[in-house]
Design brief:
- By secondary structure, the protein is an alpha+beta fold.
- It has helices at about 20, 50-60, and strands at about 40, 45.
- The protein has a domain at about 30-65.
- The chain has a two-stranded antiparallel sheet with strand order 1-2.
- It is elongated and about 85 Å long.
């Protein structure tokens, strides 16, 4: 006797779908402490590490951002 195929997918085969890839990814938020201002030749300056910048993007849920230099004279 032949078995008939059913339309239910195999739950063990986890294949990513296009709709699943479009879902937002959740990431853990970590606290980033405030930095002190350093003055270099009279201009205020704050130095961030690359990991801190990446964590800020996760914390603020930023997709596109422009970081520029602002100086006052």
């Amino acid at each position: 006797m032949a078995t008939t195929a059913t339309g239910s997918p195999n739950p063990k085969s986890h294949k990513p779908t296009y709709a699943g890839l479009l879902q937002p990814q959740t990431a853990t938020k970590k606290f980033i402490p405030l930095k002190s201002i350093i003055y270099l030749h009279g201009e205020p300056k704050i130095i961030w590490e690359q990991e801190e910048i990446e964590q800020m993007i996760v914390n603020e849920n930023i997709e596109y951002v422009i970081i520029g230099k602002v100086s006052y004279r």
